[in-house]
Amino acid sequence: MKFAMAIDVSRCIGCCTCAVACKMTNNLPNDVWWDTIRTDGGESLDSARGTYPNDLHMRYYPVSCQHCDNPACVEVCPTGASYKREEDGIVLIDAETCIGCGSCLDACPYGVRTLLEKEPTWSVDFAVGDADAASFKTGTVVKCTGCANRLDRDEEPACMRLCPARARHWGDIDDPESDISKYLANKHYERLLESIGTEPNCYYVS
Hints:
- The protein has helices at residues 17-25, 72-76, 103-107, 148-151, 158-162, 179-184; strands at residues 3-8, 36-40, 49-51, 55-57, 59-63, 82-84, 91-93, 113-115, 141-143, 168-172, 189-190, 202-205.
- It is of the alpha+beta class.
- A hairpin with a 3-residue loop joins β3 (49-51) and β4.
- 30% of the residues are buried.
């Protein structure tokens, strides 16, 4: 089994529902976002490039951990804190083993990890989201977990479940009968920075 995500960028409207769902479900601290929406267009978010009316281009790319087959973060981690689950390919970080050295931040080509340099803070004084959401420890690195706790309950990741444009597809890409395998069968797609050999498991459909 190998979990993967497919995102139809022609359907994505840049609403950030996936990012907010991720933040709330995982009780992420202030200033920590595991899912970010990036604009392929002009120099700033939500801006197009080109000239009006016939040469404008803008698309949104939700970006989080790509849960790579060959994760650079795992290769450089000196303590083994960054690791890949054998049963489903999800890349995780063991907070008890992480020493916050930042090697994985430098190695990850997607810029999707955060070092908790200061004591985490929240806007409210009570936990939100899933009861079994991860805890946060100062001096460690955190990132998208693929909602591993939800997967262990046979539930979908929060970002997948709440996308209003239904731009996302999820499942076991090793299973030809899964939703994601059937969806990708006749689609044109790309994977971010595929040429560097990380073999990411997020497919962007155009």
